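Pipeline run #58 for the internal structure catalog. This entry was flagged by the ingest filter as a single-chain record with no existing model, so it goes straight to prediction. Upstream metadata was stripped on purpose; only the residue string is passed forward. Reviewer on rotation: M.T. Logging verbosity set to normal.
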Amino acid sequence: QVKLVESGGGLVQSGGSLRLSCSASGASFSDNILGWYREPPGKKREFVAAVAGDGSSNYKTSVTGRFHVSRDVAKNTVTLEMNNLKQEDTAVYYCVSDYGGADNWGPGTQVTVSS
């Protein structure tokens, strides 16, 4: 069964950094996108960043230059390095893949950015 598990969430001060990791299992994801979405408090889930098997990536405009997404195709992992964090980045962050033509989600990890 396809399973994605996030780790690395926590509390960080504004301007600080945090690194999230996601481990995917149950399939080979080499031909699939691995990425990140987030749900800020009271808001809809939104796209953050994603990376394809060839290493190409895409970012939400507000995180471009601050966040960096990368993956290890062989290990089925994807990492989100977050720098210069802002209070607006506070959210539950979810790992996602498009394996099987549908979105597969992890349970999420909380990121809280304090003032």
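catalog note: The longest strand covers residues 18-25.
catalog note: The radius of gyration is 13 Å.
status: ready for reviewer M.T.
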